[in-house]
Amino acid sequence: IKIYSKYVAEMGKHISVETIRNTLRRCGYKARVKSRKPAINENARLERLRFAKKHLKWTADNWRKVVFSDENKLESDYVNQTKKFGGGGIMVWSCIILRGVGEICRIKTHLNNKGYRIILAKDLFGTLLEHDLDLKDVILQHDGDPKHRATDTKNWINQRNINTLKWPPYSADLNPIENAWSEVKKCLEERLKELEQEQGSATKKEKLNKLWKMVEKE
């Protein structure tokens, strides 16, 4: 509507709003609904401030040790259209380190703390093995999700002497893996259809891994 009003004011001609929408689509622009995010309360603000002050003097060497992890739902126009990869989107877990992206795990059912521990045992450890890293030399970052801070999860982590980075609430914006998710979502939109049409016996997991590795290369 704003574009329409500006066009009429500057050009003195009337065109339909639909014509404007179609023109924007042809130029590669897509309509997006502004995402709703929870308001950060005062306690969360203080936690973020404490985190910043605590790590203010961390060096690049300190941050190199951090394994940034997250779960995310990946969707694309192509996924929504064809219902590939499970009903319009897929839930995944992965991590990134300085050396590149880690293992990516498709989450097929509701993820509880037991399932999360299985992911850590298989995919976190698999990432360290792939990049020739020792467990004692890394620091695991994960947020305050209930399954991450469940007693069983904490005990499992402590028993294996895994160092963790206490993460402030409402702080996804501090996690660099968010940029990686953004890139892989672009790959989904741009390349998933191409990958689906490839000949051969590659599984969905293999195709997903291929997309994830594209992020590492780019």
Automatic annotation (TrEMBL):
One Pfam family of this chain: DDE_3
Coiled-coil parts of chain: 178-205
Transposase Tc1-like domain mapped to chain residues: 8-57
InterPro entries: RNaseH_sf, Tc1-like_DDE_dom, Transposase_5, Transposase_Tc1-like
Keywords recorded for this protein, A-Z: Coiled coil
GO BP: DNA integration; DNA transposition
Domain Tc1-like transposase DDE: 122-192
MF-aspect GO terms: DNA binding
Keyword Membrane: no
Name listed for the protein in its UniProt record: 1993_t:CDS:1
Species assigned in the record: Racocetra fulgida
